[in-house]
Fold these 2 entries.
Entry 1:
Amino acid sequence: MRQVPHYLIIGNGRVARHFLHYFNLLNIQCDNWHRQESFALLSEKINQATHILILISDSEIEKFAEMHLRHTDAMLIHFSGSLVSEKIFGAHPLMCFNPTLYSDDQYPKIPFIIDHDAPDFESLLPGLPNQHVRLNKEQKAKYHALCVMSGNFSCILWQKLFSGLEKEFQIPAEIAHGYLMQQTNNLIQNPKTALTGPLVRNDKNTLEKNISALANDPFQTIYKSFVTCYEQLQKVSS
Ligand SMILES: NC(=O)c1ccc[n+]([C@@H]2O[C@H](COP(=O)([O-])OP(=O)(O)OC[C@H]3O[C@@H](n4cnc5c(N)ncnc54)[C@H](OP(=O)(O)O)[C@@H]3O)[C@@H](O)[C@H]2O)c1
């Protein structure tokens, strides 16, 4: 008979809160421990657990496991997109998690990128209906670099537009929401035709005016490096 899973989530950061909520929605038994609680309580919870999700800062995951989880038979799992570990299986939820919980229907749609040598998904994360794919651990560093550039770096650029509109031009940031939505939709529908603007048009005059307008702004460096990067991409593809 299949063992009923008993999860333990370590941590109380953003991802821990989202997944505690998700397990609750799925009616899956899940304990939580965070470092504001006692180590005696941690030991009790480890003894009950079949699966321990170590959802803490990347740099602390292996140290925590070495210090507190050496003697458990429970399966150890981390959610980091970049950490490569011998003893702890990686399952990276390809999603951004902020401090606000999402709507119930969002959670089952989150895909997991799991280590190539991880057990069956049903054994790794029993009860989760989410899609998963496997990735060779040697490729995780590059994979995560691409995730950070696309999700995190583009976020910084949109934050710059929103704050620029409000602070420099006294225009409400919401006015650009339609632009963001359409750019996102265009990318999903056809990534190859989604890029518009002076780079695609090779409009050097506008590129130079944009760069001058960003004098004394740390984003001038970013603008210039995108122009250089785009020129290199054009050379490679021609
Ligand atoms: N956020 C995302 O969008 C996202 C997406 C995919 C994967 N992930 C992965 O999910 C994991 C958690 O990320 P997060 O965004 O939830 O981080 P976070 O919000 O910064 O929370 C980090 C948590 O780690 C705890 N912690 C740090 N050092 C610890 C230690 N030595 N012992 C016990 N607890 C410790 C912190 O406790 P205190 O509160 O006491 O400091 C906090 O609860 C990471 O592996 C991350 O790479 C994150």
Entry 2:
Amino acid sequence: MTNEAVSRGNWDPGQYGRFRDERSRPFYDLAALVQPSPGMRVVDLGCGTGELTAWLHGELQAAETVGLDSSDPMLEKAAGFARPGLRFDREDIRMAPARYPEGFDLVFSNAALQWVTGHETLFAELVKLVRPGGQIAVQMPANQGVPHRLTAEVAQQEPFATALGGWVREDPVRDAVFYSRLLNDLGFVEQHVRLQIYPHVMESTHGAVEWLKGSLLTAYQARIPADLWPRYLEAYEAALLAVEGDRRPYFFPFPRVLLWGRRA
Ligand SMILES: C[S@@+](CC[C@H](N)C(=O)[O-])C[C@H]1O[C@@H](n2cnc3c(N)ncnc32)[C@H](O)[C@@H]1O
């Protein structure tokens, strides 16, 4: 499976937006790590619907902000936030260093780089986007919990395994120490790297299914034939209920890696 296919999900702005408050909290925690300076040039990699990109642009009073994404439905929403100094480009994250050789003062990415594999190589490439003295700020889910693990376990059962040709989504996100070392090795002389658990209390266990339908499950939805998709969802929910029970409320602790660095 190529990187391109990994990044392709069936992104649905409506489903993604269902947990808007919970999903935006880490964004604001990440933005708080950024050290503003006048007239910044900013790129938001995997900007999604653009609402948060627009907030960041205003908050930093940036001279120019580019929101970049490869999903047409997401970019259609984002277009509504464009204004002088803020634009949205259709591009793959991995092509960004080639497309913007002039670089940025801030390379920002919230909840997107988990869709791109090979993080050692990826970050080595993304450094090319960071101007000398510039900053990088990235947040990614560090999915270690039962609901995430079961998505792959169910995908390995029939008839899904055949439909997927044996494919399961491999999570490229590594532990926080890995990113700390990587930032150091890539020439970031200041850094802040942490693992943070976001405690979500869902109405019931079913809530976790709805949450993942807007994110991780999109990768499976993009590959499983449409007529089989409801069966996968049913099997996934049954597997989740079997392990976790039908809890009301359902506590869903969500670990995320937040990293920030400044280049020499
Ligand atoms: C979970 S959403 C996050 C959106 C936004 N950053 C936010 O915080 O709400 C992930 C976004 O990354 C985009 N994405 C995933 N892989 C990508 C790639 N290789 N190139 C460009 N965009 C990508 C998806 O299209 C999606 O809009």
